[in-house]
Amino acid sequence: MTKSSLGAWSQRLLAAIFLGGQVIVHLLKGKIHRRNTLEQLAAVGPDSLFIALLTAVFVGAVFTIQVAREFINFGAGNLVGGVLAVALTRELTPVLTAVILAGRVGSAFAAEIGTMRVTEQIDALLMLKTDPIDYLVIPRILACLLMLPILTLLSLVTGMTGGLIIATNVYNLSDTVFLDSARNFLDIWDICSAMIKAGCFGVLIATIGCSWGLTTTGGAKGVGQSTTTAVVTALLIIFVSNFFLSWLMFQGTGGGFTPGI
């Protein structure tokens, strides 16, 4: 990344932060375009469900393959389910589901709004006294905020199912022991933390995608560049914010795993 491109990227990141502030102000005023919001909920949730669940089941299966043999060798096969549950709930499921949405939904937001910008459709909305933030941005942010936690929860269940299939059929672990271990390792805060992370990631993905779309210039080439940069930026922000969220939620709050087994 050259110095000039880094400067342009920084300016667009500041524009995204400013856009987030505008969204908060508009929401406090109760400005929500309900029809657009329902359309975006369908686009973000049901249309992304299959790929999110397919990813989750294989992530759970692969994690179990990597962990189960080592744990069995150390005589701790009864901990496989709990370790998988904690890993999926705290980190893997919210992060990987957000990555999927960044690639699928964040890029679509940037491309759609970027195309509207370069074809002057945004200007047409302003001429019609329609605020693009109310009409375009807020529905997309609300859709990601609401649907990403739901997708994360469904992916968690699917990931555990994938791990259970591998544990019982490949390593001959008891399904009862596997599930009891998961239940003993997890508490309600782990589920809540996953939902909080997912909601934060959803807001960040939608805000970055919309902001990059609104600041697009340069015709079709600019739309392509905005789409690519929006996805890369969203992925970067997801990983950085995940570190700080994990630090706030889990560091210094106990002595690690305290399973009742």
TrEMBL record:
Localization: Membrane
Transmembrane residue ranges: 12-28, 48-65, 135-168, 188-215, 227-250
Record's keyword terms, sorted: Membrane, Transmembrane, Transmembrane helix, Transport
Membrane topology: Multi-pass membrane protein
NCBIfam families, per the entry: MlaE family lipid ABC transporter permease subunit
Protein family: Belongs to the MlaE permease family.
Protein name: MlaE family lipid ABC transporter permease subunit
Organism: Anabaena lutea FACHB-196
